[in-house]
């Protein structure tokens, strides 16, 4: 029997979701549509002159690639046009967006946080990039404008999270708290098919992913952990694999087993990754796949956010590997 499509899967599982009112399904469907449009743009990038810096800087003071801007606009417009969310926050926007409904009556209850094109520094060198999204129920009263606290919720409150990886094939991987499922796009007909049902981490992986170029700036605990990974002992040495695109490194590790690390350093005391629209959604997916996500000491999804674009050290992957990393942080910190 032909593999189930993402559309069929969303409908089938809508009833399993206790708050199902169809709104969440419509959000997932609009992300599905936007992902196809961005995929088309990303795949064409080499052909059409939309590569290279757009000359602007985003809130992270990083060069904005034109595709960053395009992907951001596509996801935001797709969500706004369908009037299915009351608020949106994006890595590319300094402030969150309050979505006005018809005659200013917006009865929608969900907000979406998004990193529209993560790993964008890889765009020009034809390496996989991705989109990361996180969905919460608003905490402020229905019908009123959203406020910052709607977005500063702990990751444990997420109702859905997922990523799109624009790689050798384009995949959409997501969870609504009932496990993790991966869908591969058939570009010939523009349909996502269930290709990776019930994605689950190996408890013990043999891959570690971090930018070892920052080694001298790492905390002592991380230096010792890297040496531990490289030691000829037991099931080690591990293999070092680092693509420099979170979605790609995460995706390889959830399939093969492994740990992704973005530590704090002297240069980046809070690390580089953003808590709200990178670490929390990836942590939700990791935990739903039997893995673990930590800031080195605490469960990522228990951290109380203070700012929209705050950064946090991030260790995520196979359960026992992250546990081991945390033991190093405790012992050497
Ligand atoms: P570095 C991409 O910019 C990103 O946010 C993640 O996708 C990636 O894992 C990381 O930063 C790469 O950062 O400092 O190693 O180049």
Polypeptide structure, described:
- This protein has 333 residues and is α+β, with helices and mostly antiparallel strands.
- The protein folds into 2 domains: 6-196, 2-Layer Sandwich (Fructose-1,6-Bisphosphatase, Chain A, domain 1); 207-332, D-Maltodextrin-Binding Protein, domain 2 (3-Layer(aba) Sandwich), CATH 3.40.190.
- Helix content is 30%, strand content 22%.
- The chain contains 8 helices and 15 strands.
- It has helices at residues 6-14, 23-44, 66-81, 148-151, 220-230, 246-256, 275-288, 319-332, and strands at 53-57, 63-65, 87-90, 97-98, 110-118, 129-137, 160-166, 170-175, 180-186, 191-196, 207-209, 239-240, 259-262, 292-294, 314-317.
- The strands form 3 sheets. An 8-stranded mixed sheet has the order 4-3-5-6-7-8-9-10, sandwiched between helices. Strands 12-11-13-15-14 form a 5-stranded mixed sheet, with helices on both faces. Strands 1-2 form a two-stranded antiparallel ribbon.
- A hairpin with a 4-residue loop joins strand 9 (180-186) and strand 10 (191-196).
- Helix 2 (23-44) runs antiparallel to helix 3.
- It is globular and about 65 Å long.
- Residues 118-119, 121, 211, 244-246, 249, 272-273 line the site of 6-O-phosphono-alpha-D-fructofuranose.
């Amino acid at each position: 029997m032909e593999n189930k499509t993402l559309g069929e899967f969303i409908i089938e599982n809508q009833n399993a979701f206790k708050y199902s009112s169809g709104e969440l399904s419509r959000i997932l469907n609009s992300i599905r549509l936007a992902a196809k449009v961005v995929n088309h743009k990303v795949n064409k990038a080499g052909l059409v002159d939309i590569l290279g810096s757009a000359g602007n800087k985003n809130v992270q003071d990083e060069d904005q690639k034109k595709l960053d801007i395009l992907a951001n606009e596509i996801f935001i417009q797709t969500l706004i046009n369908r009037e299915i969310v009351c608020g949106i926050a994006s890595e590319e926007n300094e402030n969150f967006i309050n979505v006005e409904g018809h005659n200013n009556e917006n009865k929608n209850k969900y907000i979406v946080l998004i990193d529209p094109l993560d790993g964008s520094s890889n765009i020009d060198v034809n390496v996989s990039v991705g989109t990361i999204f996180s969905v919460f129920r608003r905490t402020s009263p229905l019908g009123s404008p959203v406020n910052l606290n709607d977005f500063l919720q702990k990751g444990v409150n997420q109702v859905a999270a997922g990523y799109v990886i624009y790689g050798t094939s384009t995949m959409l991987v997501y969870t609504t708290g009932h496990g993790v499922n991966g869908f591969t796009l058939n570009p010939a007909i523009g349909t996502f098919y269930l290709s990776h049902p019930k994605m689950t981490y190996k408890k013990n992986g043999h891959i570690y992913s971090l930018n070892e170029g920052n080694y001298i700036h790492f905390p002592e605990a991380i230096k010792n952990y890297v040496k531990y990974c490289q030691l000829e002992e037991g099931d080690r040495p591990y293999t070092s694999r680092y693509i420099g695109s979170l979605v790609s490194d995460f995706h390889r590790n959830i399939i093969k087993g492994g740990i992704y690390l973005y530590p704090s350093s002297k240069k980046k005391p809070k690390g580089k990754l953003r808590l709200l629209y990178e670490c929390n959604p990836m942590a939700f997916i990791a935990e739903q796949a039997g893995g673990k996500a930590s800031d080195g000491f605490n469960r990522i999804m228990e951290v109380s956010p203070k700012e929209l674009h705050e950064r946090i050290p991030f260790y995520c992957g196979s359960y026992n590997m992250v546990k081991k990393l945390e033991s190093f942080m405790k012992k050497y910190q």
